Amino acid sequence: MNFDPSHSKRSFSSVGTRPIRPDGVDKVTGRARYGADFNMPGQLVGRILRSPHAHAIIRKIDTSRAAQLPGVKAVLTAADLPDLTNGDAAMYDILDNCMARKKVLYDGHAVAAVAAIDARTAKQALKLIEVEYELLPHVTDVDQAFAPDAPLINDTIFTTGVDPKPDRPSNVSMRSQFGHGDVDAGMARADFVVERTFKTEQTHQGYIEPHACVASVSSDGTADLWVCTQGHFVYRQHCAQLLGMDASKLRVTSSEIGGGFGGKTHVWAEPVALALSRKAGRPVKLVMTRDEVFRASGPTSATSIDVKIGALTDGTIIAADATLRYSCGPYAGAWAEVGAMTAFACYKLENVRTVGYEVLVNRPKTAAYRAPSAPMAAFAVESAIDELAKKVGMDPVDFRIRNAAQEGTKASYGPVYGPIGIGPTLEAVKNHPHMKAPLGKNQGRGMACGFWFNFGGQTCTDLNIGMDGTVSLAVGTVDVGGSRASLSLVAAEELGIDYSQVRTVIADTSSLGYNDMTDGSRGTFSSSMATISAARNAIKILRERAAQMWDIPVEDVTWENGHAVAKGETHGNLPKLSLKEIAAASGTTGGPIAGHSEIVADGAGVSFATHICDIEVDPETGATKVLRYTVVQDAGKAVHPTYVEGQYQGGAAQGIGWALNEEYIYGKDGRLQNAGFLDYRIPVCSDLPMIDTQILEIPNPNHPYGVRGVGETSIVPPLAAVANAVSNAVGVRMLHIPMSPPRILAALEA
Amino acid sequence: MRYIRPSSIEDAVGLLAEAAGKAAVLAGGSDLLVRMKGGFIEPELIIDIKAIDALRHITESEDGFVIGAAVPCAVVGENAALRRAWPGVVEGANLIGSKQVQGRCTIVGNLCNASPAADSVPALVAAGAKALIRGPAGSRTIAVEMVAVGPGRTSLAPGEIIEAILLDKRPPRSGDAYQRFTPRTEMDIAVVSAAVNLTLDDRGVVQSARVALGAAAPTVLVVEEAAEILTGSRVEDKTLDRLAAACSGACRPIDDKRGTVEFRRKVAGVLAKRVALAAYQRAGQK
Amino acid sequence: MMAGIAVSTNINGDNAEFLCHADETLLDVLRDRLGLMGVKEGCGTGDCGACSIILDDRLVCSCLVLGAEAEGRRIETVEGMAQGDQLHPLQQKFLEHAALQCGICTPGFLIAAKDLLAKNPDPTEEEIRFGLAGNLCRCTGYDKIVRAVQDAAGVMRGA
User: Fold this and answer.
1) Labelling A101: which of A31, A118, B209, C3 has CA 20 to 30 A away?
2) CB-side exposure of C151: number of CA atoms within 13 Å?
3) E-strand stretches of B69-157
4) C101, C105, C151: best mutation site toward chain A, by most A Cβ within 10 Å?
5) CA distance C78 to chain A (A)
6) A24-32+456-600: which CATH architecture?
7) pLDDT tens, position by position, C137-157
8) Which 8-state DSSP code applies to residue A152?
């Protein structure tokens, strides 16, 4: 690859405009096809039987009566799936989560599945499956699971990352540590210290579309999977590996996706649907109910975090320390590790230490949720920072500006930053009219900062130029929020043609090389990089064809604004050739014209945001009302500013819901009590104000257009911004998220 | 499973009695269909009462209002005369679910679902509303607070259907109000709720009052003591504080996913104050 | 075995007939028997509004209606909003304002907004927010949806 990804382009004609998205009309007319909107001839209905117990040994599963029910075509348990016991541990866990092998580990854990001719038969068949459980003690709370005498969830887990290696298994799968300097010495020098323990409850991504797929496995071993996913290539890899199939024989097509936010980066029911189809010899459609989505997909971690920060009288943070305990569900994870990396990433710190503990609990497997792990750490740190600013006697914005990381700062998690946006977002907030607006009685204002890494990763695109000069762009990163529009803009920009001349599609796994999934805010970042690279490869061919048409050396042909231009004294007066003209002649100049790109998109630009929240609290009931909300975030370069704003607003709204009302509620019996949208309260339209946005553009030096990821950072500051606002409104420091009315009232009366 | 849409109340009662407990009555369906979907009930027969013309109307007469069992809450909210006479009852009915649910759900369904948190019930209880019941043995009328006997359980005998809700004609200088506490502004279930209905004398003194609390006990709670506190008062601050204390004290709530005992107790009192004031102001405006 | 119930109804102006089971929801009938996949299932319990339809001028969740109840009624779904290739002003404004990201909630929002504007052609922001509170959106934070409805209301009043 001879592609130079450095930031080079500074003026744009297509990028930065706001055209209508290419998939828009289908989505407003009901034509767009999501996971559940696809059917195949002869298709069966798949359903999964789930454990009602939080922790139990599966003594026996009798499926014989279900199998005999007329209309049932396949019944499946873990015994029908490959036994990966002595294989790759991570793969074992993924398959065990899809179908429990020896024990059920949470309320909702799959134990058996059926495929039948219709939904009512499948439902009836589930009732005929008899499972004998031997109940075990369970633990669902992160702090209780962390305690040494907690019920043990997996006796093969010994804490890694500690020396000496422990001789007893525990619920802590890993300890991780980051930082530099001497925290204890620094803390000893501090004039002011804030030390607090915070807790956040488990939340769900809350995508409106339940998981859905149609699987079809033929007797010759070829297979098709239609599925709503953030990463169809990864789903293919995992399904093939779990079921012992050849990846190339499994074609996965990603449907339109009705929200994912990280929750559709893991396989859940898809391997089961494929296995059912293989067994039944017919296509199987498997759609989760909302109850199943809550109980058996992947919510985020519940956390418990200790923070201690010390400052000098001049406002310099002299030491920062945090211990973070994150729940992982019943399998080993690396969620606290990410929290530990992000916790202090906004600041320039001489002495910093973060320690993360991964804690197993009898809850569903933790999955990624938009900037996974960062919002909770930011809640703890930004709450403590606010309190420390008050102790020092500084304005919270000024205090943060004084300690903000900048270019050249060694981040608490290791690397040295390039040009970054934390300082500029803080300056923008300081000057924002929102900060000067008056507040009324029982109202408070809070602000907070947030950080997210952003990722790049493996990316492949095909840019095909038709004989009429229009362009098809095939990408492999699933479009979760408008990236087809952005990538069409990028292709148009690079080729010098109009946006309307480009159509971007998401290719299936058999039509394009491997792509990592749409996570880590990488969709537009990495696929735009690959698109630019593919377009430049296509331009090279376009120049060659023009040279051929003119019969001049290719070195004398340049590409300007969608045209080949001949240069030099001998042919400088040749009329330029448009892309359309070159394409029309392609049949006689060497065949189809296309540009391809296969890259590892390195150099994702870290992202920072600062949010402001005004809130009113009813002191008699603890009810809250968000009055005003402002997001300031660095986008690097906003390719389609409207969709960048949309990401900012959407992340803020999810964060506000998390801060105020969303939580998984477990009973003493270890069962989830609120597995539905009525009692798992995501914000409704009347709960929120307009969400103001301000896009800053500090170019990422490692992307030709300066693009950073924009999707995730917006969910990082809200927990803290809202908590700081509530704390300021009521005069009591809020330590437990969500700040539901009962918690606020209890804090007020404590 | 069968679905039948009878055209007379007699046919509906006959079908229900015949099915001997294995039939479900369908009005709005916003509870029934959810329970069927969750597998909590599997009736053999669904009796859709919406084709019975007599149940589909709100009628106003000399005696007051009759709200048919099949009238969706959205229609309740659109009835100007009812809104004027019983604003608190209408408030309660219009808080159930969302706009979409409003298009389906009915007051009678809400009552028969027998949830302690039912939004339309406290105001009906405070209003002294009655349920007109039709069964195999004929008709009877009972106070609405006699319908639910516990969470999910009613006093209806096999084969009985509530045909309508009866609301008395309003004396002058009367007002009612209902408020609930929910974490969200809409699309939610009452964590705790309160309704007050009162009538003033010509000097602005409360002549009679009824106070009811929702989600504060296994069934909607009538707080006699609170009514006594209001009676004879002009709903001054001092009265409101005593009212709040009486309501908080009368609560027998539980801890559950929607709220704690302490929270419900405290907020029951707060809401009682607020609705008493609202009802008083409404009464004074007449 | 249960017998199918024969139902005659009208969907988006066209007569339609189908057979369904007694416990089958109108949502399932629309999607699985009639192919109207624009009606989405987000929860199946009336809590998200993705399956919103207009039934005889009333906004309802089709998951809370039985298929059998559709007999003799008029049903409007998102598929009936555009006239030929002419988008409804709400559809056009949703596109222009980027009032959708993933788009799964969009059909329900469009139908709910259509019902709202039919009853209140000039709603305030607060009326729009409460009017659409039965529809969950997890992507947009509602900001651009509210703006699109405000803008469409203006266009429709002018039209």
Assistant:
1) A118
2) 18
3) 130-135, 138-143, 148-150, 153-154
4) C101
5) 6
6) 2-Layer Sandwich (3.30)
7) 999 999 999 999 999 999 999
8) P
- CATH fold, domain A303-454+605-749, is Aldehyde Oxidoreductase; domain 4 (3.30.365)
Choose from C27, C57, C64 for mutation: most chain B CBs within 10 A. Answer: C64
* The two three-digit tokens of residue A155, written as one number: 């006796």
Structure tokens at A70: 């007329």
Q: Tell me the whole-structure pTM to 2 decimals.
A: 0.97
8 A C-beta contact, residue A228 and residue A216: no
Q: Which two tokens stand for residue B75?
A: 């229609």
Report, in this order, helix, strand and coil percent for chain C, each rounded to 5.
40, 20, 40
**Which domains, from first to last, does chain B contain?**
2-49+57-168 (3.30.465.10), 174-284 (3.30.390.50)
For chain A, which residues score pLDDT lower than 50? none
The residue length of chain B stands at: 286
Region of A316 (left: φ > 0; alpha: ψ -120 to 50; beta: rest) is: beta
Residues of chain B with Cβ-Cβ distance to C123 below 8 Å are none
Structural domains for chain C: 5-77 (3.10.20.30), 89-158 (1.10.150.120)
Report the Cα A332 to chain-centroid distance in Å. Answer: 19
Say how many residues make up chain C.
159
CA distance A644 to A642: 5
The pairing of strands B45-48 and B23-26 is: parallel
Surface of B (172-231) touching A: CB under 8 A: 181, 183-189, 191
How confident is the model over A348-395, as pLDDT tens digits?
999 999 999 999 999 999 999 999 999 999 999 999 999 999 999 999
Q: What is the reported pLDDT for C1? A: 46
Interval A232-265: pLDDT, tens: 999 999 999 999 999 999 999 999 999 999 999 9
Buried b (16+ CB within 10 A) or exposed e, B244-263: bebbbebbebeebebbbeeb
Write down the pLDDT at residue C2: 57
Q: Do domains A24-32+456-600 and A303-454+605-749 have the same CATH topology?
A: yes
For the domain made up of A35-136+210-257+264-296, give the CATH fold: Aldehyde Oxidoreductase; domain 3 (3.90.1170)
- Candidates C151, C13, C11, C146; CA nearest to C89 is C151
Residue C159 has pLDDT above 70, yes or no: no
Chain A partners within 8 Å of B186 (Cβ)? 684-687
Count CB atoms within 10 A of the CB of residue C1.
2
CA quadruple B269, B274, B278, B280: dihedral, nearest 10: 50
Where do the structural domains in chain A lie, given as residue ranges?
Answer: 24-32+456-600, 35-136+210-257+264-296, 303-454+605-749
